[in-house]
């Protein structure tokens, strides 16, 4: 459920938002058609959820389902098609009004009840057998919607109930970025073209481009400089809110060949259980592109590496102090024989500016 954000100017003083403002900004962003169009059009996302639900039809048929953050209601409709007796589709944003229309258009109003409210404030008439939710944000945890899934699990899910998806894994790998390399080299070419030396702009450009923002971009397979390293696993049946306050892990990899590391790339997978073979929704650069793309974390300076250069360190994901729905990522890393470097990244947001 990755959201859209607007870029802020670097160096702007920020203020902490209260929870009601955070929630308003979050839910208001889902009242426009654009984000829903992007999500539904993401065939990897939508088809995998559809297949994950149908593969679990034996656990859904005749049962009660809770759809957390239902949006347009597409997952609720998949559950109804899979034979659910009752589906509670909970959605706090105004898109819930459109979900009501979509449910009626598909003649599922006897099965699906759309509830326009925040999940933490509702009361259901019964416990549920299944929870389904598309809660993932950029770098998996941006938006903190997993918190609502855990709240729903602890309050509404029957013992032994099913959560779809049931597991999430986080990965990291060093990458080379030829576009950034070209942009940095550009300033050294100006003199040859116009007769004016602008090579001094390179350092300024590096600070602007290789900054502390979490950049969301598609990364190609050719950019990735090592095998992926899995650094964290989240079991949705057992993970706690306390554990989500700091999701961390270590990584260690060896570079494929001679190149320059410009950044680290972070992505995730989520897994749907199945009787025969589990179904995986992957946002890996090695798989077809999704609307989540990948989270790119630029180093302060590019580092040249050779075949088998070791890259290792520790990575932590935790909520921003300014906006608890936004994610921060800290990476402590060592490349080859260099000393340990540390850098903390965050999602930029113009709403955090002091007006």
Automatic annotation (TrEMBL):
<keyword id="KW-0949">S-adenosyl-L-methionine</keyword>
<dbReference type="GO" id="GO:0032259">
    <property type="term" value="P:methylation"/>
</dbReference>
<dbReference type="InterPro" id="IPR029063">
    <property type="entry name" value="SAM-dependent_MTases_sf"/>
</dbReference>
<keyword id="KW-0488">Methylation</keyword>
<dbReference type="GO" id="GO:0070611">
    <property type="term" value="F:histone H3R2 methyltransferase activity"/>
</dbReference>
<protein>
    <recommendedName>
        <fullName>Protein arginine N-methyltransferase 6</fullName>
        <ecNumber>2.1.1.319</ecNumber>
    </recommendedName>
</protein>
<dbReference type="InterPro" id="IPR055135">
    <property type="entry name" value="PRMT_dom"/>
</dbReference>
<feature type="domain" description="Protein arginine N-methyltransferase">
    <location>
        <begin position="167"/>
        <end position="337"/>
    </location>
</feature>
<keyword id="KW-0804">Transcription</keyword>
<keyword id="KW-0805">Transcription regulation</keyword>
<keyword id="KW-0234">DNA repair</keyword>
<keyword id="KW-0227">DNA damage</keyword>
<keyword id="KW-0808">Transferase</keyword>
<keyword id="KW-0539">Nucleus</keyword>
<dbReference type="GO" id="GO:0035242">
    <property type="term" value="F:protein-arginine omega-N asymmetric methyltransferase activity"/>
</dbReference>
<dbReference type="InterPro" id="IPR025799">
    <property type="entry name" value="Arg_MeTrfase"/>
</dbReference>
<dbReference type="GO" id="GO:0006281">
    <property type="term" value="P:DNA repair"/>
</dbReference>
<dbReference type="Pfam" id="PF06325">
    <property type="entry name" value="PrmA"/>
</dbReference>
<dbReference type="GO" id="GO:0045892">
    <property type="term" value="P:negative regulation of DNA-templated transcription"/>
</dbReference>
<keyword id="KW-0678">Repressor</keyword>
<keyword id="KW-0489">Methyltransferase</keyword>
<keyword id="KW-0156">Chromatin regulator</keyword>
<dbReference type="Pfam" id="PF22528">
    <property type="entry name" value="PRMT_C"/>
</dbReference>
<dbReference type="GO" id="GO:0005634">
    <property type="term" value="C:nucleus"/>
</dbReference>
């Amino acid at each position: 459920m990755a959201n859209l954000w607007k870029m802020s100017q670097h160096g702007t003083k920020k203020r902490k938002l209260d929870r009601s403002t955070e929630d308003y900004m979050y839910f208001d962003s889902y009242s426009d058609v654009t984000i829903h169009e992007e999500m539904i059009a993401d065939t990897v996302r939508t088809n995998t959820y559809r297949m994950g639900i149908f593969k679990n039809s034996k656990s859904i048929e005749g049962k009660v389902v809770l759809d957390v953050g239902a949006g347009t209601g597409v997952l609720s409709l998949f559950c109804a098609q899979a034979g659910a007796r009752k589906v509670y589709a909970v959605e706090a944003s105004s898109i819930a009004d459109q979900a009501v229309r979509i449910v009626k258009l598909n003649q599922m109003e006897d099965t699906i009840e759309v509830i326009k409210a925040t999940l933490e404030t509702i009361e259901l008439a019964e416990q549920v057998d299944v929870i389904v939710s598309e809660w993932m944000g950029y770098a998996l945890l941006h938006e903190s919607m997993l918190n609502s899934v855990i709240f729903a699990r602890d309050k509404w899910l029957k013992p032994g109930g099913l959560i779809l998806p049931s597991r999430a894994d986080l990965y990291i790998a060093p990458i080379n970025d030829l576009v950034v390399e070209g942009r940095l080299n550009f300033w050294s070419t100006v003199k040859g073209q116009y007769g004016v030396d602008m090579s001094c702009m390179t350092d300024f450009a590096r600070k602007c481009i290789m900054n502390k923002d979490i950049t969301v971009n598609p990364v190609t397979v050719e950019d990735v400089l090592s095998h992926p390293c899995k650094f964290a696993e989240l079991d949705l049946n057992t993970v706690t809110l306390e554990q989500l306050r700091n999701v961390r892990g270590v990584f260690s990899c060896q570079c494929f060949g001679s190149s320059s590391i410009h950044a680290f790339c972070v992505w995730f997978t989520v897994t749907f259980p199945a009787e025969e073979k589990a179904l995986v929704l992957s946002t890996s650069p090695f798989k077809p592109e999704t609307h989540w793309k990948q989270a790119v974390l630029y180093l302060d300076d590019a580092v040249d590496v050779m075949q088998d250069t070791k890259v290792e360190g520790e990575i932590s994901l935790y909520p921003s102090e300014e906006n608890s729905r936004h994610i921060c990522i800290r990476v402590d890393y060592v490349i080859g024989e260099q000393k340990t470097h540390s850098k903390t990244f965050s999602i930029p947001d113009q709403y955090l500016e002091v007006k």
